[in-house]
Amino acid sequence: MNSVALFGARIVNRLSCFLVLSRKFCDYSGDGGKTDTGFNCIEETLTTVYESSDFDTAMNGNPSFYDYQHSTKERFSVRRSFLDNVKLDATRLLDILQNDGPGFDAKLALSESQIRVSEILVREVLMGILRNINYADKTRCAKLGYKFFVWSGQQENFRHTANSYHLIMKIFADCDEFKAMWRLVDEMIENGFPTTARTFNILICTCGEAGLARKVVERFIKSKTFNFRPFKNSYNAILHSLLVIRQYKLIEWVYQHMSNEGHPPDILTYNIIMCAKYRLGKLDQFHRLLDEMGRSGFSPDFHTYNILLHVLGKGDKPLAALNLLNHMKEVGFDPSVLHFTTLMDGLSRAGNLEACKYFFDEMTKKGCVPDVVCYTVMITGYVVAGELEQAEELFNEMVIKGQLPNVFTYNSMIRGFCMAGKFDEACSMLKEMESRGCNPNFLVYNTLVSNLRNAGKLAEAHEVIRCMVEKGKYIHLVSKFKRYRRC
To answer: What residues contact residue 411 under an 8 Å CB cut-off, 6+ apart?
Structure first.
């Protein structure tokens, strides 16, 4: 038996000692395990599904009015009218704040508006400021947000909620006002609000890049006010937030602290720790955790299998992956399109395009319909391998079958055309994605401009940058292209 088969047997033997699985996916997921529309990292399937588990809905960019609605048509109509009025009031208040400056007392104007302050109104106004932060004048945006926050908190019969604090904290974070953000945490605690996973998530994502992640974690672990109900305990919320920002060593440290405090891990804990161990290259510890997970009575869930397939794919072990997929079927767990996509992504990154083709065909034979992420993984694999014709063929197939390409798909195709020296086709692809309602992100523009510049097509590169500026795209990032203008 060769080493690949031995590795596959090792995984399957470990899994066979677990309890027989039910068909349901991970209980933490509110969407049945659906993935995001990116395909970058295995962590995405762990991080995205927990965002809906009672995190502040407004922080996800979609202010939720669900709690204000009722099931009957009559009440729904009344509530809809109420919500429309709230949005109009929020627009009026935002206009007043925009006029703030010398000779104009915004606080007085806010009071004279005679608009009744409510939680939903405060959320709408703060979300409006958050969505429209001017990166050229962050300080002013932070001041306007805080001015409204203070004013609204002083209104009769109104008291800020934890969600209000989180929104103004996020505004401060995006405006680089870190000291002010920390002061709000202290104010929250003083006013009797428990600091939750959302509080922690805002702080850790902001301070992680500044090298202060460990300080934030230590403070929250020691704090008696940190409480987050949907997770088994607060440690899982911390571990989840650290996974989002890829603080793998810090995940190890928190897990050790969690164990020392006598908090047993659950399936979510094991999945996160296994991700961290793999990312740190500690495969022996990865396998020991898998063994420990089984001895503790936990069966692998949707995400555990996804992690294992990722490891096998990146390790270029297609036979072992096939054994694992067969094992999943044997225990009553049908592999989904996400499982196949994760495996193919790993194999593609390992350079085994033939194995990718095999599993793509196997997936369709088993009735799994490829989605946009799956197609994008395969298209990217073809592009990297220099097989542009096959990439184009698959791109056309996905469009015919009703799968709309996303920015990742278009970026791969643009990259492929550029690699083949077909710059006219690459520029046409950019126009095509815009015409189909898929807005190019900075990555797409960067791919096109960088390749045009490297090919000596400076005029074309400048034209793409000019279009970016005219359309108001990523103005705060255009400075990254200054070197092109100097050429």
So the answer is: 443, 444, 447
Residue type, 145: G
Instruction: Round to whole Å and give the CA distance between 45 and 424.
Output: 36
Name the pTM for this structure.
0.66
Would residue 440 be called left, alpha or beta, if left means φ above 0 and alpha means ψ between -120 and 50 degrees? beta
How far apart CA 58 and CA 55 sit, in angstroms, is 9
3-state secondary structure (DSSP) of residue 281: coil
CA dihedral for 128, 133, 137, 141, sign (positive or negative): positive
List, in sequence order, every residue forming a beta bridge with 104; answer none if it has no partner.
101
Instruction: Give the separation between CA 449 and CA 478, rounded to whole angstroms.
Output: 11
Residue 49, Cβ density class (10 Å: 0-12 exposed, 13-18 middle, ≥19 buried)? buried
pLDDT at 351: 92
Which residues are 226's β-sheet partners? 195
> For residue 453, what are the contacts with CB-CB under 8 A and spacing of at least 6?
461, 484, 487
Crossing angle (nearest 10°) for helices 162-174 and 119-131: 10
210-212-216-219 Cα dihedral, nearest 10 degrees: -150
pLDDT confidence band for 138 (50 / 70 / 90): confident
With CA atoms as reference, report the closest residue to 53 among 201, 212, 177, 230: 230
Distance CA 414, CA 423 (A): 8
Q: What tens digit of pLDDT does each residue of 427-485 get?
A: 999 999 988 888 888 889 889 999 999 999 998 888 888 877 776 554 444 444 444 44
Read off the amino acid at residue 72. T
How far apart are the C-alpha atoms of 316 and 435, rounded to whole Å?
39
Q: Find out whether 33 and 25 touch, Cβ atoms under 8 Å.
A: yes
Measured in degrees and rounded to the nearest 5, phi and psi for residue 101 equal 165, -175
Non-local CB neighbours of 483 within 8 Å, separated by 6+ positions: none
